[in-house]
Every structure is written in structure tokens, then in C-alpha cells.
């Protein structure tokens, strides 16, 4: 009898484990923590792939002459990227010794990998630049044969709507917060990719999103307690600067 009770408990625990979704790990700006890597470097996406992250996030700006480059900061190496010509921006050296990459170079390196491309289009000062950049980004992804491996994210509301229009079969997520799952669904977004505080303020959005068939991605989660909160609350994806720490919690 006691043995039966023990087996029941084990099966019940296994059933709970089997039904709980395990969040997928996205490396924020690539996996840049190891020596020799750097945020948004080509090395960082190679490293994210090497530890089997689901996705590797990276940021795309347009230069003043319309060349797409990969970097996070609006101002980097003394230049405001969107106000500077490509010739100057591409001369910047990253902390790991690589040159700041063009999107083309980044995608060429990604072709040899398996990791999903979580492509963030930065919000430019002029929304018209977002629209132009969105067109060029989608064209670049598609022409490199990376359509199936790409998900788009952006803080730009006009950019979001343009990306959804241009790439209706790619998941596209909104980063800014403030829109409910129902509003995101109406726009055609795949879900909410919000800061953890946005979900702490609106925890009901997670279930609402799932009920609408949308996904939840939470950023940027580096602290173990925050990681556990995301796991316990049903995040589909967790974006982190510490993917190896998150893997240790999930395994
Ligand atoms: Mg980003």
C-alpha cells in the first residue's frame, strides 16, 4: 500500500513535469560573456550556437547612408550610428578585436549555424528610417535563405507593423510593453517580448497571451530568482546575458 502511494506520487510528479513547458533560452546580444566574445560580435552568435541556445538575439541599425549594421548602442565608438556613414561605423573595433559587423556579414556567419536568429530592429529617430530598415532587413534575411530561422523583435511601433506586413510568416514580437495580449493579437504580433517588470505588473497577461495562442518572451533575466519566476510563471522564452546559468536551472 505504502509502495503504491509512492508510485502514485512519482507518476503524479512526472505528469506535472511533463505538462510544464520548459522555457527556451535566448542569448541576449549573443553569448558574449566568455573570453574572446563581445556583444553583437560574430563570435557571440557562434558561442550561443555552441551551447545550444534556442536563439541568439542581435540588434540592427541603419547607418546614415542606409547600410545595416549589427550593434546595440545608439552611440558607439564615439559615433551616433544612424547619423554616421557606414565607412566610419564599420571602422569601429569591438572589445574582442572584431570589426563592427554589417548585417550581411553577420547573416553569412549565421548560415553555418543552427541557432535561431532573434533579430531586433532598433528604433531610429525618424520612423521613416524604421520602415526603410524593416524592408532591407527582411530582404536580407530572405535572400540569405534564413527566413525559417528568424524571429523579429522591435521597440518601434511603426517598425512592428511594417515587419508584420513584410514577413507575415515570421514570428514578430513587440518589446516596448504597454500593449495587452489582445492588442498584440489584433496587430498580428506573435506575442509579447517584455521586460520582466512589465509581467510582474501584469501577471495575467501571460495566461491571456497563451489563451490567445500568443507566446511570451521575458528580458533581460540574469538573476536566478528572476529566472525561477519566469519558469514558474510559464514564460515560453527567456532572454538572458547568462545563458549557461539559465541552462543549469533548467536541467
Ligand atoms: Mg536588443
Protein architecture, described:
The chain is α/β, with parallel strands linked by helices and 251 residues long. The protein has 2 domains: 123 residues, Phosphatidylinositol (PI) phosphodiesterase (TIM Barrel, Alpha-Beta Barrel), CATH 3.20.20.190; 60 residues, no CATH class. Helices cover 41% and strands 19% of the residues. The chain is built from 11 helices and 11 strands. The strands form 2 sheets. The protein has an 8-stranded parallel beta barrel, surrounded by 7 helices. The protein has a two-stranded antiparallel sheet with strand order 4-5. The longest helix is centred in the N-terminal third of the chain and has 18 residues. About 3% of the residues have low confidence. The chain binds magnesium ion. The site of magnesium ion has 4 residues, from strand 2. Magnesium ion binds next to strand 2.
What is the count of β-strands?
11
Ligands: magnesium ion
In terms of DSSP E residues, the strand content is 15-25%
Can you identify the CATH class of the largest domain? Answer: Alpha Beta
- Name the helix and strand elements from N-terminus to C-terminus, one letter apiece: HEHEEEEHHEHEHEHEHHEHEH
Give the SSE layout:
Layout: H1 2-19, E1 24-27, H2 42-50, E2 55-62, E3 68-70, E4 75-76, E5 79-80, H3 86-89, H4 103-110, E6 116-121, H5 127-143, E7 150-154, H6 157-166, E8 172-174, H7 181-187, E9 191-195, H8 196-201, H9 204-211, E10 215-219, H10 224-232, E11 237-240, H11 243-250
Parallel strand pairs: 1-2, 1-11, 2-6, 6-7, 7-8, 8-9, 9-10, 10-11
Antiparallel strand pairs: 2-3, 4-5
This protein binds magnesium ion.
